[in-house]
Structures are given as C-alpha cells and as structure tokens.
Amino acid sequence: MPGAPRKPRARRYDLARTRAAVAAQFRHVRDAVAGLDAARLGAPTRLGAWTVADLVAHLAMAVEHVNGNLERPAPPTPEATATDWVLSTAEHAGRIEEDTRAVAAGAAPADLLERAAARYEALVAPVPADRLLSARVGAMRLDELLVTRCVELVVHTDDLAAATGLEIPYDRQALAAAVRLLADALAAKAPGGSVEVRIPPFAVVQCVAGPRHTRGTPPNVVETDPLTWIRLATGRTTWGEAVEDAAVTASGERADLAAYLPLLG
C-alpha cells in the first residue's frame, strides 16, 4: 500500500575492485604502523582499554578472517549478507575482544600485518565471488565478506589516525564500499522512503517510514561527508555532535536519525 516500507534492493559489489580495495587500505595501515615505536604502540585509543598495539592486532584479524576461512571447507548454503553483518556486530563484541587480546599477545604488531597481507595475496586472488565462507553472523559470499573488511579497515584506520596523530590515506574504493554498506544498513534498519540520506560522492539512500517522496526536492534530507557518516554509523560521534559542528545538514521534520544510530556495534 502507499507509504508502506519497501525492502531495499540488495547491492552487488565487483569482486576484483573490492579485493583490490582491501589490499590497498591494508597497505596504508601497514605503512603507518611501520613507523611506530614501542611507546606509540602502547598508547591508548578511543576503543576502551585497547592500546594501539591491540588495535593493530584487530586490523590484522580483519584480514586473517578472510584468509583463515578460505583455508576451510566452504559452508553448504549462504546464511547472511553484508548488511546482516553490520546489524549484528554488537552481539559478538565480547568474543571479538577476547580474540583481539589473544592475537595481540602472540606476535609483534608489524609482523601480524605482514603475515596477514602475504596470506591474503596468496589466498584470495583465485577465488570466485560466490565462494561461501564462514563468518560470525553466518555463511557469506566472498564478495560480500570483503565489503565488510572494507568497513573494518576504514573504520579502524580512522581510529588509528586518531590515536597516533598520523595522516593515513583512505583508498577511494575501500571508503566507497564502506560508506555504501553502512548506508544500505541504515535503509534496512529503518525501511521507508520519507528521508533521503546523501553521502556524496558515494551513496544516496531512502529510509524511515512515512510519506514517500516521488519527485522534486525531498521534504526530508540529510547530507554529510563520507568520514562523518562512517563516524556516525559506528558511534565515533553522535548525531547531536555532528549537527552542532555543521558536519551534517538535516532538513525536514523527519530528518533526525539519532534513533537509528549507531549501526555498527
């Protein structure tokens, strides 16, 4: 019926571009970590009790998650999508914390990154997009799992930059994939067509139940830049802070997304 929420159309990602994006963003991380001494590796981050070394271990884990599952037999059927992954991460936070501590204690941060990069290069290239891999949320296609790795790498590159003061580049394709997936997750969490969310130059989605916009300028519009969107979607900044800082523009009586954020736990 008119105005009823409509399920967002599933997005497909180009495997070759996403595979290269993961490698490129991971290379930026490795370059940044190579210059850190012991004192800076032991410095705090904005992620609770994690040090920079713990954060680096988690970044290595993000890529090793792909590597390790490519070495295991493929699950029989798909069980989850990349959007499902975004909306379920909070459920696994405790286990992720434990695993990160264990990995960080096992090797030097730079060694963890180099090993993960070498294994990724060897294991991922010959695998087709529809190859299924295990994930905490359920079996996923390789092309979708790699998009979740773009989110992990982009989000935690921002955390690493905040903790170290370094200016770390973002691979354009990795940033685009992360922005689009998180935008799609918003549309899935708050289905509808009454608000248009714009994150130029990468994504536009409609969300929030209510009167659907069909032509002309939408009555409810939210616009922000890619990194602000990443921070909003992951709780690194709040809706109120972003609006007060003019990092977000929001017009219309429904254009308040505070109730739907963050998306990633």
Task: Summarize the model shown.
With 265 residues, the chain is an alpha+beta fold.
The end-to-end span amounts to: 33 Å
> According to CATH, what is the class of the largest domain?
Mainly Alpha
Q: Pairing-aware structural class of the strands and helices?
A: alpha+beta
Radius of gyration: 19 Å
Strand arrangement in the largest pleated sheet: 4-3-5-6
**How many domains comprise the coordinates?**
2
Describe the protein's topology:
Layout: H1 15-34, H2 38-41, H3 52-70, H4 82-88, H5 93-104, H6 109-124, E1 132-133, E2 140-141, H7 142-164, H8 172-189, E3 195-199, E4 203-207, E5 221-224, H9 226-233, H10 239-244, E6 248-251
Parallel strand pairs: 3-5
Antiparallel strand pairs: 1-2, 3-4, 5-6
Helix pairs in contact: 1-6, 1-7, 1-8, 3-5, 3-6, 3-7, 4-8, 7-8, 8-9
